[in-house]
Amino acid sequence: MPNGHTLVETRALIMRFGPVTAVDGISFSVDRGEVVGFLGPNGAGKSTTMKIIAGFLEPTSGAAFVAGHDTRLDPIPARRHLGYLPEGAPAYPDMTVADFLGFVASLRGLTSRQTSNRLAELVESIDLAEVWNRRIEALSKGYKRRVGIAMALVHDPDVLILDEPTDGLDPNQKHEMRTLIRALAPSKAIIVSTHILEEVEAICTRAIVIARGKMLADATPAELLARAPERHGEDHQMVKTTRLEDAFRHITLEQAGV
Amino acid sequence: MTNFLTIFRREFSAYFATPLAAVFLVVFVALSSGMTFFVSGFFDRAQADLSSFFTWLPWLFLVLMPAIGMRLWAEERRLGTIELLMTLPVQPWLFVVAKWAAAFAFAGLALALTMPLWVTVNVLGSPDNGVILASYIGAWLMAGAFLAISACISALTKNQVLAFIGAVIVGFIFVMAGFDLVLSAVRPWAPDALVQAIAAMSFIGHFQRITDGVFEASALVFFASLISFALWLNVQILDARKAS
Ligand SMILES: Nc1ncnc2c1ncn2[C@@H]1O[C@H](COP(=O)(O)OP(=O)(O)OP(=O)(O)O)[C@@H](O)[C@H]1O
Ligand SMILES: [Mg+2]
């Protein structure tokens, strides 16, 4: 049961798309102050799980809770607590950054005064000044992603769900995004999905490994590292991998029966 | 209400984000005037009224309204922004109604731009302006019905072209419903009640009663109910097919 700090909880989530079981019995909870990394191969079910928590998809069975509200039975209160960056950071190409964020802020119930204060903060922290009055279709991939982050943060939510937030960012921007996430962490429950394992070590307090819809691990990055197999003859390694990559490959390939 | 206006404003201005809106308005005014003056022989009839304009409107709407409505949901699906809208703390029906209302307002603008025709007939003679006003209101509502159908079908796909084609086909059924061609195909096998029901769905039948000057509230009620039903269906479709 939620202990008062639990902001996200999923119970035995199952999601089927026709014959495909995209999510197969996923249960976990995330407390305030935690940053949980979703790891897993392509098609593992990370985005689908996030869509269910965000209330976009209804699970075939099981339930998800955001700040204690069932995302299916009580969607509107759940959504108020949630900031969600969908995969690919969708936005309206014909709108300017300012108009787009203003649009979302208004639908989030901010007054125009609150909106201008909040947007001024976000321009600072996410470094959007340069593109503020540019149309979104004219933005680079990295800036587009940053607009998506700003969109998710507009109402300063308790819960943040970010689907590949650093995808497409250059190394400097990646670094800044991680700094930002770490700065936000103490007051929120954050779930990020990523294919970049060093990111998990850099920002996550916990990592959940998913493959073929099943949860294979739920551990701290350090515990995950301990599951990496011993390296033999490291000198012969043709492709350099990190210890965390070894652990990831070990866990996910083991399930696949390789 | 604030939310409604926010969505409405965004949708309405989206029409003007590209030159397409201007092109559309020009095409609409050109086609509707062209059909009035040349195809219907406005001058030969030597009668100061707008019936030749209104006769062609259902056919023009059949193609042009799907062109306005096709983007409403298909574009949200294509861009992935539907995921954003459906995770905001806003009831989905509000998006459905506000988006349709923006398209409806755009159609109203297009109709308003044909007002010079109205002025012209008043200069040439003394038409029954009451009937013309009623016809404009009826035409706008009929446009709203075409748009609600288009929005509904747009919610089924991420492909605007498919949404357009689907909306024209369904619209065509409603336009043709009153014609003997359709009714005589149904009559041999269907019960009388069904034939009556199909005939009662006819867009042209309802619209003609308004333009003939038999101001019938039932025609307005028909279009209004059809709009409500299509928008309700639109909400159901979004609910059932969020992901695909
Ligand atoms: N709308 C849908 N209809 C049918 N199948 C779907 C749908 N969405 C996802 N799937 C399937 O569900 C599975 C999980 O997809 P999901 O997008 O959650 O994976 P992911 O872990 O986010 O992968 P990636 O790392 O590539 O982003 C895949 O097999 C995918 O093909
Ligand atoms: Mg994904």
Keywords:
heterodimer; A: 258 residues; alpha/beta; Rossmann fold; 2 domains; 6-stranded mixed β-sheet; 4-stranded antiparallel β-sheet; 9 helices; globular; B: 244 residues; mainly alpha; 14 helices; binds adenosine-5'-triphosphate; binds magnesium ion
Concise overview:
The complex is a heterodimer of chains A (258) and B (244). By secondary structure, chain A is an alpha/beta fold.
Write the layout of secondary structure elements.
The complex is a heterodimer of chains A (258) and B (244).
Chain A: E1 6-17, E2 20-31, E3 35-39, H1 46-53, E4 61-66, E5 69-70, H2 75-80, E6 82-85, H3 97-107, H4 112-126, H5 141-153, E7 159-163, H6 171-184, E8 189-193, H7 197-203, E9 206-211, E10 214-219, H8 221-226, H9 243-256
Parallel strand pairs in A: 3-8, 3-9, 6-7, 7-8
Antiparallel strand pairs in A: 1-2, 1-4, 4-5, 9-10
Helix pairs in contact in A: 3-4, 4-5
Chain B: H1 2-15, H2 20-39, H3 42-45, H4 51-69, H5 71-79, H6 81-85, H7 92-112, H8 115-124, H9 129-154, H10 160-176, H11 180-186, H12 192-200, H13 203-211, H14 217-240
The structure holds adenosine-5'-triphosphate and magnesium ion (MG).
Residues 46-47, 87, 163 of chain A line the site of magnesium ion.
